[in-house]
Design goal:
Rossmann fold; about 45% helix; about 270 residues; DNA polymerase, domain 1
């Protein structure tokens, strides 16, 4: 059996259900700039196909760029809107308790107690990550993680595999010995491109999306008193994600890769 050595978590939508807070912060920022934009839940669900707030605003602005004399002016405008959005998001994060998603705290503690490595790979900022975890984990939470890569250090955002590749380099392990926990299509594509198996935990904004390369797709990590719902994949008799299930998924991926290699050799023999 392939030995699991690390579990790598995404942040927004995975550790906590933050996407609705992000959506509201975007809309508050748009009002601040007298923009007649309103990102409805449906619109925001579609925009999640684009990683990064700056990138989402740039895409949505569309023809607005033509009103600026130079591309640099438009870029600065988008940056200004995004900075205000980030300020509103931080204020909302600090003002209201946004809990970790079902099963997250339990799984983090189980992995930590097992001596496996924990890591974070996110297209979000370190400031957002820190604010979230400062309010949901013990004061020494940073010592729980052997690697943390954010958009502050890795500018290529998901679906690029860059942030996962960065984490794997820091951990000094190959992708076959790690597994990712994700919630979006871009996150799944990013992990897959880096050679990782991934567990997908959907939420309101990604419940209708498709994740063909995910090892298993669930509605949450589940808990002892709140079983997950399996959307796609095989969890055996499990009702919540634990270390044993993660090890099984990694071993299953290794077996599939071995089988594919053997078939390829036979086909070319």
């Amino acid at each position: 059996m392939m030995q699991l050595e690390a579990v790598i978590f995404d942040v927004d939508g995975t550790l906590a259900d933050t996407e609705e807070v992000h959506r509201r912060a975007f809309n508050r920022a748009f009002k601040e700039f007298d923009l007649d934009w309103n990102w409805t839940p449906k619109t925001y669900e579609e925009l999640l196909s684009i990683s990064g707030g700056y990138e989402r605003i740039t895409y949505y602005a569309g023809d607005l760029a033509e009103q600026f004399r130079h591309a640099g002016e438009f870029s600065r405008f988008v940056q200004d809107v995004h900075k205000v959005k980030s300020r509103f998001y931080m204020e909302m994060l600090e003002a209201g308790e946004i809990p970790l998603r079902t099963g997250v705290r339990r799984l983090l503690e189980e992995i930590r107690d097992s001596q496996l490595m924990l890591a974070i790979a996110t297209s979000s900022t370190y400031a957002n990550l820190k604010t979230l975890l400062d309010r949901n984990l013990p004061a020494n939470w940073m010592s729980w993680f052997s690697a943390i890569s954010t958009c502050d250090t890795i500018t290529k955002k998901k679906p690029s595999p860059a942030v996962y590749e960065s984490v794997l380099r820091i951990l000094e392990i190959g992708p076959a010995r790690a597994i990712a926990i994700e919630d979006t299509v871009n996150g799944c594509l990013s992990a897959t491109a880096a050679g990782l198996s991934s567990v997908i935990t959907t939420h309101f904004f990604t419940r209708n999306h498709h994740f063909p390369s995910g090892a298993i797709v669930l509605d949450s990590l589940g808990d002892r008193d709140a079983p997950f719902k399996i959307i796609r994949g095989d969890a055996g008799t499990k009702e919540f994600v634990d270390l044993e299930l993660l090890e099984q998924l990694v071993a299953r991926r290794a077996q599939q890769n071995t089988t594919a290699t053997i078939r390829a050799r036979v086909a070319t023999a």
